[in-house]
Input
Amino acid sequence: MNCATQPVAGEDISSILIVDDHPLYLDALESALTVMFPDCDIRKAKSLGEAIDCCKRGFDPELVMFDLKLPDVSGISGFKRLRAELPSARILVISSLASVDLVQSLIGQGASGFVPKDASAKELKSVLAEIVQGRIYVPKDYRTNNSAPRESASDACHPILAELTPQQQRIMKLICTGKPNKQIAYELSLAEATVKAHITALLRRLGVRNRTQAVVLVEGAVARQAATEPEARAFLRN
Output
C-alpha cells in the first residue's frame, strides 16, 4: 500500500486501532494512516484478544480498522465481539474475503464500511473521508446485482417497497446510495424536517428500526441473487 500524501480533509478522528495479523500490511496501514491523520493516536493489535486487552487498558478508539481473518477468531463472530466491546466506535472492515452477502451482514451488524484488502491508499483515503463524516461506505460491487439497474432491482426486491409513496421511494433510493438527510433534502428540494418525517414513515412501513437496516433489507434481497464465494459463505454461518 502506498501512503497517501495529504491528511484526510475535515478529519475529526483522534484515535485509531488497527487489528491485523499480517506485519507488513499492519505497518503499511499504520504509515498511511499517520499521513492521513497526523495528530492521531494510532495503535496496533495482531489478534482480537490483543485488541480487546488494549481497550480494557484504557484505549478508546474512535475508529477501528479490522481484518476478519485473525488467529483467535472464526467468521464474523470476531467482529461481533469487537462491536459489543466498542459500541460507539466506527469500525471499517478491511479483508481479502469479499462477497455481497458477507458485506451486507457486516453492515447489518453495525460496521461503518467495508474495503477490500487490495484497495489503494488513495481509495482508502476517500473511504475514510466518508466515514469520518458519519456515513456508511459500501463499494458498488457489494451493494447490488450489477446485472440489473439499481432502481428496478430495488423496486422489485421486496413487496413492501411497492407500498411506499413515490416520494418515500425516491428517498429510499438516495439512502441506499449513502446520502445524508441534508443532501437528500437538497436534491429533492425538501425541508430536512420533511425528509426526516418521510424516513420515519418508511422505516415503520419496512418494519426496521433505522436506515442501515432499511438499506440491508433492500440491498440484501438483491444480493441474494448474486453468487457468493464459498469461504465468505462459511463466514456468514459463524
